Amino acid sequence: MNKDKFSRTIDKINVPMEKLMEREKVAIFQAKKKRKVGRTTKRSILVACGLCMSLLGSGFFYTGMAEALSNIPLLRPIYKDFRDIASDKIEHDQLATVINKQDSHNGLTMTVKEVAYDGNRLMVSVIYTGENGLSLREETVGFNYITINGQPIEPAIGSKGQDEIDSNTIIEHHQYTFSTYNENDDVIDIAVYGEDLFGYEGEWTVAFPLEKVAGDIAEFYPAVKTTTADEVYSLTADKVIFSPLSTRIDLTIDYPTEKDEDDTWPWFEFIVVDDKGRVYDKLKLQAGMTGNYGHHMVLTLPPMDNIPQSFTLNPSHTNSEGFSEEIKELELIVPLNNSK
After folding, report:
1. Can you tell me the distance from the alpha carbon of 89 to that of 79, in angstroms, rounded to the nearest whole number?
2. Superfamily of 3-211 according to CATH
């Protein structure tokens, strides 16, 4: 597969520092996909977890290492350290599938530790161990990616976070929200690829089948809409899906066609509040775009055992002075009583 297809140049965007600070423990990119100029938005922060991990030296680099890796004394699952939006639910309901499959050569071992998939989201945790040490220095990190059924993932939301456990060990967490719910089958083929990783030359591949986790799915189609007084912008809540790994809200944002043509279409930030007053923002909310320009937005919230009666969506945008400004006209109450 062509590396350039996975590592295109990312152009500069206006990201408020306060928003970066809010998400300093999570690596998130939120893609504004398929702009006319081919621009992609990427927000990625390497996190510092402060964990310790004991290794048994060079004895780890031999055939059959998977069994030994299953007993590595991580203080808690990797997805917990990267604050995956579903981490509490994954741990409580034991939704992660333990893989412990590896590719080991040239002094580096890449091991896929745990994964989870529910049709809407995919989570993959990876451990790297190196005979001669590992480093996250930019010039040595290398290149890696994940495919589903042999194809690159084109998500609405995705991220990759990495952290050094010690001088010989790095953990990595990938998480994706797909562009469309259930766009893949119940059983999928996952492959994790690496090239020239952390100063070690070569290529690594770990491939395995993965089955969707069992759990209740609830779909709602509220089809409620609000429009600004000048009729420039409108916001429609198309559907809300509750699944084991997330709560997904699909939105349609309408605006004048010329904003597509001159590439000035809006990117709204959201705070979501349920009928009990629980607030979802910062680390409890992710947002991304699918399709052309900015018409289809996806919000991802943590999974919920109890479905609320409604959500209130509070949109905002960054004004000309670089500050977040609420758009009260587009506040939208989304009732959850029209289920499929």
Report:
1. 11
2. bacillus anthracis domain (2.60.40.1630)
Give the predicted TM-score (pTM) of the model: 0.78
> Which two tokens mark 169?
């060990």
CA distances to 34, 130, 178, 340 from 113, rounded to whole Å, are 33, 16, 21, 36
Higher-confidence residue of 139 and 69: namely 139
For 171, half-sphere exposure in the C-beta direction (CA atoms, 13 angstrom radius) is 27
> Is 313:270 a contact under the CB 8 Å cutoff?
yes
Positive or negative torsion for Cα 182, 185, 186, 189? negative
Q: Identify which of 146, 159, 138, 152 has the alpha carbon closest to the alpha carbon of residue 42.
A: 159
Do residues 233 and 255 make contact, with C-beta atoms less than 8 angstroms apart?
Answer: yes
Question: Is there a common fold for 3-211 and 218-335?
Answer: yes
Residue 195 to residue 205: CA distance in whole angstroms: 9
Cα dihedral 284, 289, 295, 299 in deg (nearest 10) = -20
List, for residues 152-206, the tens digit of each pLDDT value. 999 999 999 999 989 999 999 999 999 999 999 999 999 999 999 999 999 999 9
Each residue of 22-55: pLDDT tens digit?
A: 333 333 333 333 333 233 333 222 222 322 222 2
Q: Is the pLDDT of residue 146 over 90?
A: yes
State the amino acid at position 269 in one-letter form. Answer: E
Q: What is the pLDDT of residue 308?
A: 97
At residue 76 the predicted structure's pLDDT band, cuts being 50, 70 and 90, is: low
- Match 């990616």 to its residue by tokens: 145
* 21-24: long-range pairs with CB below 8 Å, 24+: 22/282, 22/283, 23/282, 23/283
Domain extents in the chain: 3-211, 218-335
Mean pLDDT for the chain overall? 80
Give, as one character, the DSSP assignment of residue 241: E
For 218-335, CATH number? 2.60.40.1640
**Distance between alpha carbon 194 and the CA centroid of its chain, in Å?**
19
